[in-house]
Queue: 3 jobs
Job 1
Amino acid sequence: MINGKDAWVDEFVLHHIGSETVESTYSDYSAVLKGDEEQAFLRKLFLKPFAQMAITSEFAHAVGLEYNVLYNLCNEAQTGRDLVECSVDIAKHLVNVSRHHNIRGGDLFVARLNNVGLGNERYTALGMYKFEEKEVFIESRTSEGKVTMWLNRGLGSLKPNKACLVVFTPDAPTVFVLDDHDNTDYWQKDFIGHQPKRDHVNSTSNVLELTKSFITEQLPQEFEMPRADQIDLLNRSVQYFKENTEFDRTTFVQQVFEEEGVIEAFDRFGKTYKETNDVAFDDQFAISSHAVKRQARVFKSVLKLDKNFHIYIHGDRSRIEQGVDERTGRKYYKIYYDEET
């Protein structure tokens, strides 16, 4: 989702977030690294963790957005406030919401970035990264004909335990959240305060997830449908999203489900699904290829027969026949093909 190939890290600040027994330490300066090697390392550290994300968020608050602390601080940084001052307030905000004894301390980076790719556009961004662990590495030095080496601890290939990338897109910032636990309250709710963004990325993910749930869970309850037919519907659903750049609900249901009774069942299930999962999407939207790629991984196209065979179905359903042997009473599938590959 995030393309950091041409991005540039303007400056960053490092603070140490303490714990119950260790005081927090706040820096009074920012680092600026302009070398190509340094910038490549910073892009890897600050942007690579978000490269495969296909879920977008936006800032939120139960009372009003103006009460969201991080939202206000990010806007101040974007409109020119000194990054060091702003990052200290961000670090103190994190300290204030993470006082529970089970919450670990660590290093907090706050970075100002430029030319961050999202879709086909480039934006400025502000990133916050909390590293609760460090990796061990070997350092070596050659001097006076001798090689010495020792162990040290630092950051290199580790991903942050928690991170938040705020991309300043038009109208409202787009927020990406990284959490080494599915939903850490102090990080996601108290520190960031976010909700799913109603955009084409989440709309694509939501409709695909809705369709998968309908085909695998609800459809077999309302219609007698062999597993091979379910897999065919799953494949046709994903194929629609891969072949089109725009989603149109009417066209989608007609191409995938075809039968009016199934379409009506899908519409009923969709209304319940939206209420139960608190999601919303329009009948037309631009399709996100990143979201399709991510969701397609969980669309299982495997037909499992007892413990003996797995049949992977990726194409023409008409080439598969199902039946029962009259002599033995055993079920079978007959598969037609042109050649072995």
Job 2
Amino acid sequence: MGTRVVGYRYCFEVKISPRGKDRPKGRIIGGKGRKPFISIYTPKATIDWEKSFAAEVKLLGLNVPEEIPLDVAIVAVFPRPQFMQRRSKRDGSLLGGWLERSYLHSSKPDADNVAKIVLDALSDHFEDSRVAVLTAHKFIAALDESPRVFVRVQEASSSTSADVIADYQLEACDPEDPNAPRSVGPRW
């Protein structure tokens, strides 16, 4: 094993409108005297987005050390829809009660598909199987904000599963709260 990198962290932002990874498509090829078979392919829009994102990252010179587990955080800022930009003719305020700030994006594409397309676009720099911790956030842009994808790649901490579970339980599960989630499943 080579030199171990401690405390590796790299952050970058790509000014590109985020999207989710499309599902693979299939088509039947053959017939008329030949045995038909199904050809599976990735949609062109997905391939084009991955190439554009990868080209921008290549210009940044991302250099991820080999053989360390990675913690990747992705923040996708989607374009603000037209209905959230409409203003009153009378006083110029935003209609519909919308504010100028950003909002959490809770519709399609799914956060896991956004993470998949970003990680696949970064495949020239590291294998996505090395990602031990993955965090994805989706936002709708603020009124004065442009769409973009922010990525942080860092060395994953060497905590144990018990430590991580204990941290989550401390954050979210109050033992005094009757509505708090409880453990289910077999007790060994």
Job 3
Amino acid sequence: MCACLRGGVDSCTCGWLHTREAEEVVPMQGIVCISGTNRPDNYTARALGIVVDAFRHSRIDPLVFDARTLSLAFPGHPDSGDGERLRTAIAAAPGVILATPEYHGSFCAMTKLILENLGFPSVLAGKPVALVGVAAGRIGAIKALEQLKSVCAHIGAIVVPGAVSVAGVQQVFDEQGRCTNADVEAMLRGVAPALLTFLKDYICPKHILEDMVRTSAQPWATTMS
């Protein structure tokens, strides 16, 4: 039995991210990050790149799917292979980061097509999902994120609180794709630890209890009056 199971739920939630034994309960590798637009030279991928870099600084190498490289089928049409690859990765992932631009007051069509390719029931069902949105306007991607949150919740995903919205995105990155706003960069870098903390606080205890019941439970009895 791993150390966190011997110590119970409390010892796991205090320090499981730093132990190899705890990673056997909920592996941190395999987190999926999705850039949800296929527009060339887009800002969504640049913002997501900061999130990915934050994961790598935590010694976690996520799987990155960039919509610019995906060929996805519309509902009812044959799968080209990328849809199956996406479903397989998400089904095995402990959590997902989904990034979208805001177009015309909503999340973009490519993000919706990605969701349509995740099956029914969706492989996002039961998965923690953190959301990132970017927009050119001053109010950011608030409308897109609210609608995306609603859709993700509808298909059964567990939406991580605190979606990140980047406003005025065209002024946030320079021509080389580097973020020039320290506050925005800090906010984007915070997405990775937010997802990891959510997994630690809510998903790890669930897996520990399931493991205790399945492999470590002792017969017991009680009376009720």
